[in-house]
Amino acid sequence: MRIIIGGAGRVGTDMARALRAEDMDVVLVDSDSRAVKNAQNLDVLVIHGDLVTRDKLNEAGIGEAEVFVAATNSDERNLLACSLAQHAHKELSSSKTKSLLTICRVRNMNFVYEQDAGKLQEWAKVNHVVNPLEGAINRLHSGLRSSAIEEVIPFGHDAYVIELDVTNMASEIVFQSLRNASGNIEGGMPLIVGLKREGEKSLVPDGDFMLMPNDRIAIATTGLSSFNRILNIFGHEATDFPTEPRVAVIGANHIGQRIAGDWLNSGATVTVIERDLQRANMLSGTEIGSHPKLEVIHGDHLDRDILTEIGISEHHIAIAALEDDLASIAAALLASDMGVQRTGLLLYDADLVKVTQRMGITFAVDRKRVAVDNMLAQIHTKTAGGYAILSNIPNIIGVSMLVSGNAKFAGKRILEASFPEWMRVAFIQRLNTNGTWESLRPSPDKTLLEGDRLIIFCSPERVVELEKRFKV
Questions:
Q1: Cα–Cα dist 253/237, whole Å
Q2: Local confidence band at 109 (pLDDT 50, 70, 90 cut-offs)
Q3: Structural domain 2-131, CATH architecture
Q4: CATH code for the part of the protein at 246-370
Q5: Could you give the C-alpha distances from 7 to 83, 199, 283, 450, in angstroms and in order?
Q6: CATH number for the 382-469 domain, one of 3.40.50.720, 3.30.70.580, 3.30.70.1450, 2.60.40.3080?
Q7: pLDDT tens for residues 346-380?
């Protein structure tokens, strides 16, 4: 399948790398000569040229393409490129050619609202727009539960995969097989869906695998309340998370407003600190501005006197999501220095995520990685929708597959499904009698029903084989 990606920046190249791992035919197009040069080490065709010119789209093979992704930093160029790509594809394709799927990265939420209203495809010829903000906020909310968690990936319906290290304190499980270690743990061993050991390839461990200290693992679990149990098992000190936390949000821009709304919806008391008087007043005049648990403070978030006056040390969490990454880091570090125990960041620069962890920031989210995951999920339309790349365990991905009536294992227990060792079912997501989705643990005796969605972890080169097994 040919996939054309417009934009050879961080998002575009990460997508290209992931898709090549699945043996997809990928073409990158970018007008920036430096970005093109940096992308030359990828095993893809790289074209230097303007994404919104018909000649370059034809050179990229738009007539044979099945997917077109516009991932530049400009919403308008991305929308225009998708519209032009649709027209160029239709002009060159034959009656046997598959229709073109267009995916557009946007920052302006108005385009998301247009899509939700069913109008965007009509006027822009765009099948899907991707804005990673909501997913990034969800990851940040979940990750702030512990500084020991390296990454949290929500899969929806209370399902999470968390990444962390095994420490020397995990005496009941290290230096023995996972099968034997499970007998030492009340309630059984948490489900490990991916593992990386220094100097070795990533893998999906089976029951005979022996855990060692410093192994980096990915754990599938349901419910935020399960995080502390997992932390204890793998040798980390768990701390209680307040049921009604006090949260300080630094910045009243649209990102800060969304973060404030997210925490207010979960029962928190929120203080928003904003330097700009007009922006602070605008927040006060919004729907969430009248929330009884929200206080909007006009003042400098780097002024210790103001932070002392609002009682910053009495807040459980401080989150900075300013337009400038370095300004956000400075704000979070000051809040930490003044006594806030948990600090969070939404960052644009992926390299700063690891740096901030070493600084003592509790949890930082790489917005561009969330964008890549969301776009890959849209590309994999043959699956049930979910797709995620593990941050710290290379070459292991999570993908959602639908159990159809054609699958041989529909109606059978997992024990009888004869799934190969190279894949691991992390969750069964099922529509219950109330009409809502729920996430179930994949115990061997669980029966797989037609319509179930399975979240499965494997290496990316196995995705094609996985699709064949699920008859998609």
A1: 35
A2: confident
A3: 3-Layer(aba) Sandwich (3.40)
A4: 3.40.50.720
A5: 16, 33, 34, 39
A6: 3.30.70.1450
A7: 998 888 988 998 899 999 999 888 999 889 888 87
